[in-house]
């Protein structure tokens, strides 16, 4: 019997090794075919081709086939990306993704040309300077959106609920993003977190300290953390920002390809607000790092979340620099709220849903007004 088991194990191991070898042979054949196709293009395409560009497009196509958030960045785009995380870059001021062949606006960034021109979360860009973008990769579309500072661009936008497309003209500019803005709203401390750049955590700390001084700790009714139209940013900043409002507990967990390999971020210092009531505002433009913060504070019942369903980007992208100063951005993990929920392609559901009726002309913000009234009622988070 033991002899038969040994034979079975040997046959199984041999079969498994043969299967792996066969799969590798199939893979090498496909790579050979890729080389053959590239050679055929070089020899037979009707016009001269840019070899490097063709290969870059092939790399980008490979990554984009995985999900809309993975992609290739040439050296120039990689440099711009690093500038963006530091809080300064050139362009229009919108965070975008690709959906159904068109560029979808995740969120316009506050005080940027795109926001001032009236771009909204959920807008679909169908044409750039009159040319349709259907069929372009996200990188190609983004390159068309970029241009010299001071130049104008005409964007055709389809907005859900509007019968006709909109033509929006935007002037490109150098964009310096101030990560945090704050002000007293009566006895409430209003904090607007615009992006999770390297300045986010520092800005939140300063906002809490200064609002405590301006309003007075004894007079302060609570805080409103506004994450609306915040497209996210650096993962570590989301954990640090959340840490300012929690005394303990998990903030977010991250699971990669190996589901047993779990990284966790937990609160490690005292609540800077001393447990004051907290309301978090979100909308359909709140994505990624914004959803980590809102989800953690909601799960720990540290905050009441008000607004509309968030975007639903629950994936983590890692930047892998390449030898030629370019890089790839690839989805390497999904993150989970403290309750163990993945919000990927779902989003954070607010505790209290309040539809936005913000009036640009009269500068009225009904969601903010609702949050202020809630604080005045001395809310209790149960």
Structure write-up:
The strands form four sheets. Strands 3, 4, 5, 6, 7 and 8 form a six-stranded antiparallel β-sheet that branches. Strands 10-11-12-15-16-19 form a six-stranded mixed β-sheet, with helices on both faces. The longest helix is centred in the N-terminal third of the chain and has 43 residues, at 2-44. α6 (200-215) packs parallel to α7 (235-243) and α7 (235-243) packs parallel to α8. It is built from nine helices and 19 strands. With 382 residues, it is of the alpha+beta class. The protein has helices at residues 2-44, 51-64, 75-86, 113-117, 138-145, 200-215, 235-243, 289-299, 366-376; strands at residues 71-73, 88-91, 94-99, 102-108, 124-128, 131-132, 152-158, 166-171, 173-176, 180-185, 188-193, 222-226, 250-255, 262-266, 278-282, 304-307, 315-321, 327-336, 352-353.
